[in-house]
Amino acid sequence: MEAAKLLCDSLFRWLENREECAGELSKLTQELENVPQGSNIFQAFRAVLSRSAASASVSPTPTATEAGVSSSAFNKASELIKEDEKVGTSIQKLLRDLKVRCGEDLKVRCGEAPLGAHADELDCEVTSQLMWALARRKDTPVPLDFLRGFNRATFFRHMTPGGLAPAEASDFICKALGLVLFTEITSSLKVSAKEMVKNIKLIGIKAVEAGSEALGATGLGISLYDLIMKSEELVKGNRVTEASEFLRDSAGEILDGQRKLKEQLDAMHEIIQKLFRMKNLIQNLGGYSLSMNEDEQRIMAYIMGTCTDNTVVSWLKGLPHNQNEFVNLLRFIQERLKHILEDLAKYSGDHIHIVFVAHGSIVDQFMPSGGLVPTPNIRDTVLYSPWNCAINPNTAFGIAQGNIQERDRQFYTLAEDEEYHLGLYEPTDLPDHWNSMRRFLSHDIPVILLYPLTPEDEAWMLFHQLWLNRRLEIEDRVIIPYLVPEDEVKAFGEIPLYMFIFAISYILSIDDRTATVHLAACLGLKERPEEWERQYAYTSVTTGMTVNIDDSDMESELFMALRSLFDGKRR
């Protein structure tokens, strides 16, 4: 975001200017302290004040020169005062602009709900955007989504209280990023993201009023112009020594404020560097494995620490091999998305449609539908058949191609002892839209399990050949059949759909891309719990869904692969 880049550039400009300001103010203080006792020191201070509003090229007044204050001291002080006011005002405007842009972006990505639900959502986005600008400035490119995930899991964790307990999550993050204690993020590293943004808000705000006896809480908001006015008031009251001490202390306070913000920016960049290394670890996973090496353990520690989805964390903490299986799943998703993400980069695209194709079923266990849209980079997950319903190759082909229409669906029985009649098995109260998880975030849904195809399955070779020839990519759409990589049968098993989608969201976050997920799988179960009646629609046992497709489509390689997978009754 350009607003964040401009703000970041202005902050570094302000840091340089403030350091120079403190030095010049100290010099000017020293010269004023050396003014002879008989000089009109009040006129000298008046000269400083008048010079701050005038052009820097004009010489100081005769009174000031006679008093022993050098021309260079006046000129430099005047230039810096004007520059400080200009940069400070600019920073406040840029910060306001950034907040407006971030607010608009949040509404587009997340809708109105997150802003209303979490008071800190806007600050989190502002912080993430500023970190992203700093990362690019320092040539350590960390994707914006990756930074958002870190900030939400650390400085703004209270907004999404799911996942591990805060102390346990902190331990995992420390292990992953190589920190001794999590307090290093906010203490030893001298940075709190929220505090830094709060400090930036003080820049350009006048913290010292004429006649006041005290400095501001930090040197960030001190106005150099106001310092001169304050000093003038002290001199006017014959408190010359106090005025000199005030200017000297102010110079120190200004330098302390400058150093504080610089330390926070430096510490923030140190965190960015650690996240940059973590991103590279994820991007450069090696081959499939039945065990995890040290780097993969660090990756899983980071994922466990930053994940705020209770369902995902529960699965990862379940069986001993689950974490290793998830690392292999990350490899699998990277492998399948590699080419289409590269193509998107060439054409400046940022959104893809991902179609999962697999054997599927549902279990009598429920989860929040939001688990299938776990992050904003998963815009939606769309299910097509009602619960307890199978699909045939025609339906799978329509989903894969992206041209399936609600009005074309028909239902039939899979029971061998019943006649095949279309239209007699349509569920009651069938909605006129597909089952969008983003649309029904407040609903509970059955857990969907996906089962891999192995090299022993006829469909495996057909899909594998299509993938090798890049025939599973259709413009911005990629079809991902759940195929066990050859010779890696033991590395994969049945995996819940929500874990596939969580893996996708992670891979997309390190590429700054978004996706809509579509599922082409059967959603059958022998019995129907009453809870299903509250979400979308359901069918009786042994019901399938089909659509009409052209005869020419039935000759395609994709259809033949789908037919070998979904080999139930079909039209």
From TrEMBL:
Listed name of the protein: Uncharacterized protein
Lineage: Eukaryota, Metazoa, Chordata, Craniata, Vertebrata
